[in-house]
Amino acid sequence: MPTTVSAPEVPTLALDPTDQAPRLARAFLAERFREWGVADDYVGRLVVCELVTNAYLHGEGPIVVHVFKNEHDGGVVIEVWDAGEGVADRPGTAGT
Questions:
Q1: Is 80 helix (H, G, I), strand (E, B) or coil?
Q2: In whole angstroms, what separates CA 35 from the centre of its chain?
Q3: Of 3, 76, 77, 79, most Cβ neighbours within 10 A?
Q4: How far apart are CA 71 and CA 59, in angstroms?
Q5: pLDDT at 92
Q6: What pTM did the predictor assign?
Q7: 3-class secondary-structure state, position 50
Q8: Do 67 and 32 meet the contact criterion of CB atoms below 8 Å apart?
Q9: pLDDT tens track for 45-69
């Protein structure tokens, strides 16, 4: 009999590639940190802003942001995708 594993929901934000995207991503990250009781969100806001700005300026199509806790070490993982054919073979990620 196959085993069913349920994955936790990953907070996701889909953004239009506009100059408002970095601001919206910072607010999204700040809200996740508040939900988790993380008081210092400065580095996280800086990282998500840089990744989203790069996607807006150099990528294509919608920008997708994931912010979640790493279950192994409790750190926060920030992932940003766009539809462009960039040189990276995985999403822009950063652990805080």
A1: strand
A2: 15
A3: 76
A4: 30
A5: 54
A6: 0.79
A7: helix
A8: yes
A9: 999 999 999 999 999 999 999 999 9
Residue with tokens 């994931």: 66
Task: Calculate the CA 80 to chain-centre distance.
Answer: 5
| Strand, helix or coil for residue 90 | coil
At 31 the three-state DSSP class reads helix
Q: Which amino acid is at 61?
A: G
Write out the two tokens for 30: 């700040």
Four-point Cα dihedral 47, 32, 39, 70, nearest 10: -70
d(CA 16, CA 89): 22
Helix (H) or strand (E) run with residue 58 in it = helix 42-58
In angstroms, the CA 73 to CA 80 distance is 21
